[in-house]
Design goal:
- By secondary structure, the protein is of the alpha/beta class.
- It has three domains: about 190 residues, 3-Layer(aba) Sandwich (Rossmann fold), CATH 3.40.50; about 50 residues, no CATH class; about 210 residues, 2-Layer Sandwich (Nucleotidyltransferase, domain 5).
- It is about 35% helix and about 20% strand.
- It has a seven-stranded mixed β-sheet.
- Helix 1 packs across helix 2 and helix 18 crosses helix 19.
- The chain starts with 7 loop residues before the first helix and ends with a strand.
Length: about 475
């Protein structure tokens, strides 16, 4: 049987299509570093690849170039990109669009969530939070790219397994290792025989290659400014991040070293629950979470110094805002923010919960004058309503927030510092069975005060009036149930 001989140029093109690294180098004109090449070569030979990496490690950039490679290499074929939110899907497809803009292979302009060559050769982006039926998509050459993988719910993974049962299939999962449980975590543990796991530390990246932690912490400004790959994580960022949180903080373990953080057995808020609540809620879905429509605001007041006065606002299950101020007198900023928030939507009512101890009592009195009948003072050290199970009102309030997290009744925590602070709050069980939250004084000196976490917890406390009224301050004393 006689075939048509390929020209040297055609043979070279075929070779470039077989190698995803050469494809990005030649056709997308990209410069890749070692870990990015490792990801691409793993996709070529392994059915399943999971990549956990530090902040700004180039994971999504690398994955965006895999889309045109797959579409050029196979016909028919399908690429599915999924992430917890539509915004994250669109961010990925913006990267794909940028990759195609530099490509010497001319393909149609992608939309914000996909690219179609033919009916049987296309790529599509889907938000896993929208309850889409992924099982309805099939192809004999299928590539699935799961971005922000720790935030993808278990039922989506089950659906993906269904469509990956046959054919030429590749699955790539990308994420920061923030949750030490679930499908993504298992790829680096009990499922590692079926999945090639790749870890990227900030100290693997070209900007920090050969630099030790000790050397980094002692660098001067000129040394910190060295950044031959400016779009990857920088020396300055890593040094500042470690200084802020401490080298053993869960957030540092994940965002700097690319490792799943350990969490104490007595952590009040499990990391998996926190990260689930930190998944961004689409703007159009916020209204659906409004509940009774009451705007709840929690305020943790700090004195002069490093600590913040923090305001957290929520309606129903949805967190709307978390903001902090470092100033001697935050009353004006607090009042203005409460007014703006309460007039930004059609809320049914307003309830402000504020730490009413020490300097907080003076701020609370001022706000109560401006918003009469809407401000309630919280005294953390007072007796719990459920004295059998809780050492004080603070412990009862924290445990109530824990129960909300477990029930998925907290959503849209879009403040990284709040997420980090929640993860480090510990509790103890007294000999009499009572739960007691450890005080701020017992926290390591390297960890910042959990001001943002406490403001958020107060925003979620139910308003339950006690028998006692603090008449001289004009504030009703309330607590959680």
């Amino acid at each position: 049987m006689q075939g048509t001989a390929l020209s040297a140029k055609q043979l070279q093109h075929a070779n470039y299509l077989r190698d995803p690294v050469d494809f990005q180098r030649v056709y997308l004109k990209r410069r890749l570093w070692d870990k990015q090449k490792e990801i691409l070569r793993s996709i070529d030979v392994n059915r399943s690849t999971s990549v956990k990496g530090c902040h700004a490690s180039g994971k999504t950039y690398t994955a965006s170039g895999i889309v045109p490679w797959w579409l050029q290499r196979y016909d028919p074929c399908l690429v599915i990109n999924t992430a917890p939110t539509l915004r994250q899907v669109k961010v990925f497809w913006n990267e794909v669009s940028l990759a195609l803009g530099q490509s010497s292979i001319k393909l149609p302009e992608p939309t914000t969530t996909g690219l179609v060559l033919t009916k049987e050769r296309y790529a599509i982006g889907l938000s896993s939070g929208k309850g889409v039926n992924i099982q309805s998509f099939h192809s004999q050459n299928l590539l699935v790219i799961a971005d922000e993988a720790p935030g993808i719910e278990e039922d989506i993974w089950d659906s993906l397994q269904g469509i990956m049962a046959g054919g030429n299939v590749r699955l790539l999962k990308l994420g920061n290792p923030t949750v030490p449980s679930g499908e993504f975590f298992d790829d680096f543990g009990k499922n590692r025989a079926a999945c090639n796991g790749i870890t990227i530390s900030a100290f693997d990246s070209p900007n920090l290659a050969g630099v030790t932690l000790e050397a980094l912490m002692g660098m001067n400004e000129d040394e910190l400014a060295v950044s031959p790959w400016p779009f990857l994580t920088t020396r300055q960022w890593v040094r500042d991040f470690i200084r802020k949180w401490g080298v053993n903080h869960p957030k540092v373990r994940a965002r700097v070293f690319g490792e799943f953080p350990p969490q104490a057995d007595n952590a009040c808020f499990p990391l998996s629950w926190i990260e689930r609540a930190a998944v961004e809620v689409e703007a159009e879905d916020i209204e659906r979470l409004f509940g009774d429509g009451v705007l709840h605001i929690g305020i943790d007041v700090a004195g002069p110094g490093e600590d913040e006065t923090v305001l957290a606002a929520r309606v129903g299950a949805a967190v709307l805002k978390i903001q902090g101020w470092r100033m001697d007198d935050p009353r004006g900023e607090l009042a203005r923010t409460i007014y703006e928030l309460s007039h930004s939507r059609r809320f049914t009512d307003l309830a402000v919960m504020i730490d009413a101890v020490g300097i907080g009592a003076h701020v609370a009195t001022h706000l109560a004058d401006l918003f009469p009948g809407k401000v309630f003072g919280f005294v953390a050290g007072r007796r719990a309503r459920d004295v059998e199970n809780f050492a004080n009102a603070k412990s009862e309030a924290y445990w109530g927030f824990r129960q909300r997290l477990e029930a998925k009744a907290v959503r849209n925590i879009q403040d990284d510092d709040t997420v980090a602070q929640l993860s480090t709050i510990l509790y103890d069980s007294r000999p009499n069975g009572q739960i007691e939250i450890r005080s701020k004084d017992e926290r390591p000196s390297t960890e910042p005060s959990p001001d943002r976490a406490e403001a958020l917890i107060m925003a979620f406390m139910p308003i339950v009036q006690r028998q006692v009224v603090i008449e001289d301050e004009g504030l009703e004393e309330i607590s959680s149930v």
